[in-house]
Amino acid sequence: MDTERIRAIEEEGKKAFAEADSEESLRELEVRFLGRKSELTGILKGLKDLDAEEKRTVGPLVQGVRVALSEAFSAAAERIAREGRDWEAERIDVTAPGVSDPMGHLHPITSLIHEIEDIFTGMGFGIADGPDVESDFYNFEALNFPADHPARDMQDTFWVDSDGLDTRYVLRTHTSPVQVRYMETHTPPFRIIVPGRTFRCESTDATHEHTFHQFESLVVGETGSVTVGHLKRVAETFFSEFFGRSITVRLRPSYFPFVEPGFEFDISCVFCGGKGCPACKNVGWLEIGGAGMVQQKVFEAAGYPRGKYQGFAWGFGLERLAMMKFRIPDTRMFMSGDLRFIRQF
Ligand code: FA5
Which superfamily, per CATH, for 108-342? Predict the structure, then answer.
């Protein structure tokens, strides 16, 4: 075996790989020097026919050349890849300001619920909730709206198709049903708030939506321990903190079947402080929601003995409150899904 020839192949191959200047020519050289039909592979295949003495000298020599040529090939491939790169195009300006991904954020109503929950939990209130799809019993019956009672017309109702069910279901028209649900499983004294989504089947306008949010509050204790005075004081404390200014609450007699006495409650105008301005139509007060002392019939529906407990409840619309806080002219904006509106919060 011609060991000179083997060394010559090594020299030739190394030189050729070092001079290769394109991927294409490199591939051709790989076939020529390392391929299945290359001279070197031929020599490797012929090793088996050599005698033992020759095998010992030629074998390691051919293998060594093969390794050396493989390395020369890899080095050339790396060099060509490097030379072929457009460094200018790949330049990275490490001093350029970063581009941040767009981040979502909470809906203004959700943020408001969190804010209100913070204020109330600070006053020792717990937070309760109930289902959006509610039975007639909790939404009406247990709250002293008997079937066919005209008071049911106070709240235009979305009835859920309840064929085949043993009770009728509605999309809850207010958060008050949670009062009864909570009382069924808790014994006074307690104080809770109930933020939640509510639905009414009514024509929409700037102050009416079919889907909106209410905020219920319920405080119950032994008879004589919870009064209308507490209701007024808690409401004033909450609204003053919420609006960041001193707020007075005014109660006007009103009717809700589940409270007695019942009130509409207003707060002193958050814009003019009660002097009179366009926002409060010059009366100095803003209507907020309904309130009252819990009807004994509601306690009874929840399984409490008549006369043992006394409590107050109120419920108000969150969107209306948000409209005052952020000076939003139309309640329908909250549910519009319009990002131009949502992004302002
Ligand atoms: C009620 O829903 C009673 N459950 C409130 C209550 C609770 C009274 C506890 C006594 C004791 P009313 O139907 O007035 O009451 O609704 C309360 C508030 O929900 C309203 O003052 C208003 O702020 C808001 N609201 C009612 N309907 C809509 C509507 N369609 N769109 C937006 N807000 C509404």
Answer: Bira Bifunctional Protein; Domain 2 (3.30.930.10)
Q: Give residue 318 CA to ligand 1 midpoint distance, Å.
A: 9
- Residue 35: φ, ψ to 5°: -65, 175
The DSSP line for 77-132 is HHHHHHHTS-TTTT---TTSPP-PPP-----HHHHHHHHHHHHHHHTT-EE----S
The DSSP result for 14-61, as a single string, is HHHHHH--SHHHHHHHHHHHHSTTSHHHHHHHHGGGS-HHHHHHHHHH
Amino acid found at 26: L
Q: What are phi and psi of 220, to 5 degrees?
A: -135, 140
Going from N- to C-terminal start, the domains of the chain cover: 3-83, 108-342
Q: What is the pTM of this model?
A: 0.74
Residue of minimum CA distance from atom 24 in ligand 1: 317
Q: How far apart are CA 114 and CA 322, in angstroms?
A: 13
Q: Is 208 in the pocket of ligand 1 (CB under 6 A)?
A: yes
Q: Tens digit of pLDDT for each residue in 206-252?
A: 999 999 999 999 999 999 999 999 999 999 999 999 999 999 999 99
Residue where the block lists tokens 């002392």: 293
Closest residue to atom 19 of ligand 1, CA basis = 317
Q: What is the pLDDT confidence band of residue 295, given thresholds at 50, 70 and 90? A: very high
Burial 211-231 (b: 16+ CB within 10 A, else e): ebbbbbbbbbbeeeebeeeeb
Q: Are 215 and 194 in contact (CB under 8 A)?
A: yes
**What residues contact 344, with CB distance under 8 A and at least 6 apart?**
none
